[in-house]
């Protein structure tokens, strides 16, 4: 999801393919020995095999409105490492305890809270985005995983003392970028994604995900 969001945000048209992982097409295997998604083949033939690598390729060269440069602070790089490392581990075991033979999913729920969600709540009580007053690449990098966590037990999640994080998540779920990203693709068929900025200026998009006032993000 974050790879799609970055490409749309950068105004880069691309073709998307929905991959059934139990029936990986020969074209995917030819592009990537890793054979996991996402994989992006650039026009000149280079292949990018990691989602954050795709985000960097899409956003770093233009750095529209500081989306990339704001993500490179030590604080944001630490959050990215937490998300892609321990949080992802605990999220998987909380979401699929039977797959990992976990007798106590709630232990992983608590660890996920501690390693990422509580630090995010603290950040968002100060400023509404990880780019401070405006979103940055770290926001779109973490959003899909926080969304997954919230969807496991939605009622429980909303009952937690995480008002600033919940507001941040709600704004992203209502954003036109998320709507454009979540186009459902037919299996094993190419789908063309037009650039998001062709229909809507990026400044207009930023206005749609900004809270109406700073007090909205305060506890």
Strand content: 5-15%
At the first level of CATH, the class of the largest domain is Mainly Alpha
Total domains:
2
- Average pLDDT, to the nearest integer? 86
Percent range of helical residues: 40-55%
| Secondary structure tally: strands | 4
**Series of secondary-structure elements, N-terminal to C-terminal:** HEHEEHHHHHHHHEH
- Oligomeric status: single chain
The SS-based structural class is mainly alpha
- Rg over alpha carbons: 18 Å
Biggest beta-sheet profile: 2 strands, antiparallel
Number of helices: 11
Task: Give a description of the structure.
- This protein has two domains: 2-65 and 183-209, Glutaredoxin, CATH 3.40.30; 69-175, Glutathione S-transferase Yfyf (Class Pi), Chain A, domain 2.
- The chain has 219 residues and is mainly α.
- The strands form two sheets. Strands 1-4 form a two-stranded antiparallel ribbon.
- Helix 6 (105-126) packs across helix 9 (163-173).
- 54% of the residues lie in helices and 5% in strands.
- It is globular, with a radius of gyration of 18 Å.
Helix and strand arrangement:
Layout: H1 2-9, E1 14-17, H2 26-31, E2 40-41, E3 47-48, H3 51-59, H4 74-95, H5 97-100, H6 105-126, H7 137-152, H8 154-159, H9 163-173, H10 176-181, E4 190-193, H11 202-209
Antiparallel strand pairs: 1-4, 2-3
Helix pairs in contact: 1-3, 1-7, 4-6, 4-7, 6-9
Offer a quick outline of the entry.
By secondary structure, the protein is mostly helical. 54% of the residues lie in helices and 5% in strands. Helix 4 runs antiparallel to helix 6 (105-126).
């Amino acid at each position: 999801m974050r790879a799609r969001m970055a490409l749309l945000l950068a105004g880069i048209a691309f073709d998307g393919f929905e991959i059934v992982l139990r029936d990986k097409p020969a074209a995917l295997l030819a592009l990537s020995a890793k054979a996991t998604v996402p994989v992006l083949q650039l026009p000149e033939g280079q292949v990018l095999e990691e989602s954050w690598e795709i985000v960097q390729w899409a956003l770093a060269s233009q750095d529209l409105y500081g989306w990339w440069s704001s993500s490179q602070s030590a604080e944001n790089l630490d959050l990215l490492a937490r998300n892609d490392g321990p949080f992802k581990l605990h999220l998987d075991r909380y979401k699929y305890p039977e797959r990992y033979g976990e007798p106590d999913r709630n232990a992983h729920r608590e660890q996920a809270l501690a390693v990422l969600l509580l630090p995010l709540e603290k950040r968002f009580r100060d400023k509404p985005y990880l780019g401070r007053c405006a979103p940055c690449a770290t926001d779109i990098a973490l959003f899909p995983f926080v969304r997954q966590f919230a969807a496991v037990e939605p009622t429980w999640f909303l009952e937690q003392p995480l008002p600033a994080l919940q507001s941040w998540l709600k704004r992203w779920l209502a954003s036109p970028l998320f709507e454009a990203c979540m186009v459902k693709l037919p299996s094993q068929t190419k789908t063309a994604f037009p650039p998001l900025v062709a229909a809507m200026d990026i400044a207009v998009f930023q206005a749609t995900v900004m809270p109406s006032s700073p007090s909205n993000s305060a506890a």
